[in-house]
Amino acid sequence: MSCTLVSAADPDGKLRIVVFGAHPDDAEYKAGGSAIQWARLGHEVLLCSVTNGDIGHWRNAGGELAQRRAAEVKACGELWGTTSMVLDIHDGELLPTLENRKKITRVIREWQADLVIAHRPWDYHPDHRYVGVLVQDAAFMVTVPFFCPDVPALKKNPVFMYSSDGFQKPYPFAPTIAVALPDDVMEQKVRGIHLLPSQAYEGGANGSAEHVEKNVPPAADETARLNWLRRRWQTRNGGEAQRYRDMLIQWYGPERGPTVRFAECFELCEYGARPSEGELRRLFPFFE
Length: 288
Prior knowledge:
Blueprint: E1 16-21, H1 26-40, E2 44-49, H2 63-80, E3 83-86, H3 98-111, E4 115-118, H4 126-141, E5 159-163, E6 177-180, H5 183-193, H6 197-200, H7 209-215, H8 222-243, H9 245-256, E7 263-272, H10 277-283
Parallel strand pairs: 1-2, 1-4, 2-3, 4-5
Antiparallel strand pairs: 5-7, 6-7
Helix pairs in contact: 1-5, 2-5, 3-4, 5-8
C-alpha cells in the first residue's frame, strides 16, 4: 500500500512524523503500533522524549538513569525502524518557557514534519501537560521565519494531533482517527516495550522492589515476562479498540472495523493545518 502525500522535505512521497512524549516511554506507549506501520511503509518517524526521565524510577536517579532510559528507547526504535531523540531537560521540571518552545519548534522544523502528535494539555503529570502546551505553542511558530531563524521555517504547517488518554475534564478525548494494530504489529509493539524494562517491568517512579517481586516474572524467564507484558498491552490497546469501535468502522468499513482487536487513536488539534478526510487518509496510509 503506498502513500501519495508529498512533503516539502521528501518529494519522493515519504511522510515525516514526529511523536512527542514527555518521558522516554510515552511516545512509544501512545503511538508505537502506528509508528511501526509507518516505518514498514518506508516513512520517517521520530519518537521524541521531551525530558530525559532522570527521576523516573524508584531505585535510582540522575545521569545514570537518564542514560539507561535513552538506551532503552534507542533499542526500541532500532527494533521498530524509527528514530529516537531525548531532549536534555530534567524529568519533572518541564515548563512552558520561551526557551522550550524554541526547542520544540526546532525539532519539528529539523524533522520537516508533516504530522505532529503529542499529549493533550490536560493530563495527570505536569510534564505531559506542558508537552501539550509547548507543542500547541509551536504549532503556528514553526512557519514564522524570524522565530528561531537559525532553523529555516516550514513552508507548510503540519497537521497536529493528540494521543489518547482517559481524562474527562475539561473535556474527554474525542478521536478523529482510529488506527488498527494487526496481530503482528501488536506483537512488535510489545517486543519494543519489552526493551523498556525500567518502566515496563520495574514500574518507573511508582514501582518498588515489592511490586516487581510479587507481580512481575523474573528477568531470567524472558518468555514469562513477555507473556505478562503481552497480556497487559493487549488489554490496553484492546480496550481502546472497544471504546472507539464506531471510529474503527468509520475508517476501516463495516467488514473489517468490527473485527479489529487492538487500536491506537488520535484527536485532531485545532491548531496547525486543517486536513480533509482525504488528507488524513494520506497521513495515515493504513486503510484499504
